[in-house]
Write a structure and sequence with these properties.
Layout (H helix, E strand, L loop, with lengths): L11 H17 L9 E7 L2 E8 L2 H17 L7 E2 L5 E2 L5 E7 L5 H5 L1
Antiparallel strand pairs: 1-2, 2-5, 3-5, 4-5
Helix pairs in contact: 1-2
């Protein structure tokens, strides 16, 4: 029975660059002036996570749109992002969403 191994992982250098470009654009855009909009990439070993913080759900959506545009311009497939996490309250009137960066194929998906 033939078998094969696949290694699916995003280009983490380009991912980091896209997050930094998104952060810069948030800082320069007029509609984000005076808001708490922020994007951050955290790396814990192999697990990577992007945290979006903003004043409202609408701003979270705008930040996510900017991030997806920057990722696609840099050639990173947006299917590596798992944005199924819900938007949660983050103290005061701020909201936060955590987006996990997939690395490889899940065991269940690999069996299928």
């Amino acid at each position: 029975m033939p078998s094969f191994d696949t290694a699916l992982e995003p280009n983490f250098v380009e991912l980091r660059n896209a997050v930094e470009q998104t952060s810069k654009e948030i800082g320069t855009r007029f509609d984000f002036k005076g808001s708490a909009a922020n994007i951050e990439l955290s790396e814990k070993g192999q697990a990577r996570e992007i945290t979006l913080t903003a004043d409202s759900d609408f701003q979270i959506g705008q930040v996510k749109d900017i991030l997806l545009a920057k990722l696609s311009k840099r050639g990173v497939d947006v299917r590596f992002l798992d944005d199924s996490a819900k938007i949660e309250k983050d103290g005061g009137d701020k909201v936060r969403q955590r987006i996990k960066v997939k690395n490889g194929i899940d065991a269940e998906l690999g069996r299928k």
